[in-house]
Amino acid sequence: PRPLDILNSTLNGTKQERERIPVGEAVLHWYKRDLRTYDNRALSMASAKAGSKGVPLICIFVVSPQDYQAHFTSAPRVDFELRTLEVMKRDLAEKGIPLYVTTIEDRKEVTGHILQKCEEWGAKHIYCNIEYEVDELRRETKMVKRCLDKGISFTAVHDDVVVPPETLTTGAGKQYSVYSPWFRAWIKHVHEHPHLLDASEPPAPNPPAARLRFQSIFDAPLPPAPENKSLIDEERTRFAHLWPPGEQEAHHRLERFLHEKVGAYKDTRNFPAEQSTGMLSVHLSAGTLAARTAVRSARDGNSTKKLDAGNPGIAGWISELAWRDFYKHVLAHWPYVCMFKPFKYEYTNIAWSYDAELFAAWCDGRTGFPIVDAAMRQLNHMGYMHNRCRMIVASFLAKDLLIDWRMGEKYFMEHLIDGDFASNNGGWGFAASTGVDPQPYFRIFNPLLQSEKFDAQGLYIRKWVPELAGVEGKAVHDPYGRGAGRVAEGAGYPRMVVEHKVSRERALARYKEGLGRA
Ligand code: FAD
Asked: Is the pTM of this model over 0.95?
């Protein structure tokens, strides 16, 4: 049985017993990657439970350095979470709801600490939203039982996705492994179950007495970022400027995007210089915005009020949001993708390279391929990269450099502010042809053609690779091959680390050889 099935059956099997537990003196909401008050399922349920007996709602967030290590969470992401928690602490305090934030060094102690706090506060009900990574699902399953031993009810609900995993199956009752039929089933299911898009009630204010009772929590400052995840001052300022925290910011961005850009999304989304996408991934992955809210808002702005018909920009954007659900379904159904294994078993035997110098050139944006270098520098500067460029650099690492795609997957998580295991793993599997519904292995992006097609004017390249700012015209895509070598060399821009024609043939041979050994 899969970890999600085990959690579901544990929750179902204990439902009656948990429901019999009295409300207690407080109710707890455990925040994880759902850092918002609006449209938050578990928070809403916790608030309703507390309201039913007029006891206070308390929120808790645990900073877990070992979890950050285990997930390769980037320092900008940790910083974003802490900045968001600061905003949330203020917002929740306006409703008299305390947000307790603490650091627990040993991840095994997290559950024990939460239980200890429940005893201290007299809380008998804990609510949280489900995360689909294996360790988290196993932890939550254990928690249901451990809590029951102490007379506490632990409830975990689906919130992170629009349609819960394991809901959509093929005619043969299996999990889809191809996006297009899965997406048709997803659309049909949401149209048939429109309540899936309904917003949850925001939490009600706490009774006034809560203020005095939890004064020390209201007054406590947030803990600092773990030492190995903290930013230097310049970075902190930069990321705070690029990615303001909190759910209000997420809603402003969503509204602006739906108002100004979504109409043209389908035609413009592939061009990195256009800044035509929602740039909401950090909010969706940290939970400052619910995917449900995003889909509902887009649908409501559509003339047909449908998800897949009407305004092509809106339908196109919703279909991208659905990829996020798809990869979470994949993760929940095939949890071994969490374990550094390719989704497709037959790709296990590819002889990857671990060339440290080439990998460093890729990481730093010094490959001599302008579009690749621009994209990697965007990532290193912003903690973000445009989707088209994510595909280009991932394909380049796995196929042109034949470097183990898992090194790229890890580097992305360590640097992205929107790092999300399922989407990142899915994206890497797609580009390296080892994942679910991937590019066929013989489709190898030509970085120069990609560059000419999607950054025709070279605006994106010139923005992120200042050495090429003085290179005119189409030479910007390949300065050494197109007569701008002297300008590029003078500015210190490197030559290409591989020749695409040669590396393409090498990749085809290496993939074929690996598949032959499977
Ligand atoms: P929009 O174009 O505005 O899309 C709206 C939302 O839809 C996104 O915010 C995202 O939540 C979702 N979405 C869009 N495309 C995808 C996709 N291909 N897969 C899954 N969800 C999608 N996305 C992450 O959120 N975190 C990651 O760690 C991540 N790693 C990736 C790694 C690779 C190699 C690739 C190819 C893609 C990865 N993506 C990841 C998906 C995608 O690149 C980003 O979600 C997107 O670029 C975010 O920009 P946006 O918010 O402007 O997107």
From this structure: yes
